[in-house]
Amino acid sequence: MGIHHTAIKTRNITLAMEFYALLGFEPVTKFRAGPARAAWLELSSTTTTTKSSKNDIPSNTTTTTTTTPYCRLELIEVPSYMLKEPPGQRRRALDLMTQQELLGANHFALDVTSQIQQREFGNLTSWIQSLNQTSLAQSNRMLRMALWPPQQQIIGQGVYELAFLYDADGALVELLNLQTVLEQPVTSGWETVYLGEYSNNNNSNNGKKWQ
């Protein structure tokens, strides 16, 4: 079992596709979901392998490039008659950076560590600044950051830089850069309590529902 896609609603699917293209997502199919226009976008990784003959003759060397999708988004455009936008106003997604008491899906995160390393940006700040310049050049639009400048956080054994930006409709996207891996994981102190609570609840046969 694996996660197939993350679905995001948008008021303008063309603009949303343009935004996610900045992050490397490419449309692979467009379709209808009832009255709504929809599309699947994929972010792929490319792997190149080289094999040589036993005699190691350059002319007998073969190179194979494999492209594998590892992240998929589904964009769903909400029809204008459903939005019921007041004159001169535009619907936006709930700002989950300020309304942190809300439950449910919050954001999805992209690991951009390999891009930072391959292009020798050095850190997440430089990578995002370069992305913003690309956005200005292609669309004359600046990125709208939700958490800036990037912060550092230790999660387990990983030391990460992280930042949040809003997409074209105000949905949150997290960007992560793995800086280093510690020899020992750093614990926050709540893990043991949680596991104990889970164990106790799991042993009961009360038949409670997930609500």
Describe this structure in words.
- By secondary structure, the chain is α/β, with parallel strands linked by helices.
- The protein folds into two domains: 1-46 and 69-87, 2,3-Dihydroxybiphenyl 1,2-Dioxygenase, domain 1 (Roll); 92-200, no CATH class.
- It is 23% helix and 42% strand.
- A four-stranded mixed β-sheet has the order 1-4-3-2, with helices on one face. The protein has a three-stranded mixed β-sheet with strand order 5-7-6.
- The chain is globular and about 55 Å long.
- The mean pLDDT is 87.
Summarize the topology.
Blueprint: E1 6-10, H1 13-22, E2 26-33, E3 36-51, E4 62-77, H2 80-83, E5 107-111, H3 113-118, H4 124-139, E6 144-166, E7 172-186, H5 191-202
Parallel strand pairs: 1-4, 5-7
Antiparallel strand pairs: 2-3, 3-4, 6-7
Gross geometry: globular
- The separation of the N and C termini measures 24 Å
Total of DSSP H or I helical runs spanning 4+ residues: 5
The number of strands is: 7
Helix content: 10-25%
Number of domains: 2
Taking Cα atoms only, what radius of gyration do you get, to the nearest Å? Answer: 22 Å
Oligomeric grouping of the chains: single chain
**Strand content of the residues, in percent?**
35-45%
Mean residue pLDDT: 87
**Run of helices and strands:** EHEEEHEHHEEH
Return the structural class: alpha/beta
The strand line-up of the biggest sheet is 1-4-3-2
Major β-sheet annotation? 4 strands, mixed
The stretches of 5 or more residues where confidence is low (pLDDT under 50) are none
